[in-house]
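Dear support,

Our group has been running a series of protein-ligand predictions, and this particular one with zinc ion is the one our PI (initials K.S.) wants archived with full inputs and outputs. We had some confusion internally about which version of the output was final, so please treat the block below as the authoritative record. The input we submitted was:
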Amino acid sequence: MAHTNRLYSVLFNKCPRCGEGDFFITKSAYSLKNFDKMNKHCPKCGENLVPEPGFYQGALYMSYAFYVAFMVIYFLIFVNFFEQYLDYFLISIIPILILLTPLFYRIARRAWLALFIKPAEKKVIP
Ligand SMILES: [Zn+2]
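Confirmed final output from the archive:
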């Protein structure tokens, strides 16, 4: 018996229960029209992906944590390896954060739901 991996489902747009059905309808975070459209139920196992109205307000805290973690890592890379170019840190951080917004939006929602849903056990055929 193996478990569907939570990290896998968060990173690869999968349902946290079965790890097979898609979470958002589009694969790309940069599809301008549909990047934020979710499946209400997992197309594979039928898991409810919107447990209650307003459930995803909690994902705001998730994305906040991702932004902070990203900025700290990005800053540490600059300080340690590109100290003479530190000005570029300030110049580049805003457009980079704007570009990351749809990506973090999606990852935060998947991570938030994955906190509450236990991955299903999978039968492994030897
Ligand atoms: Zn599923």
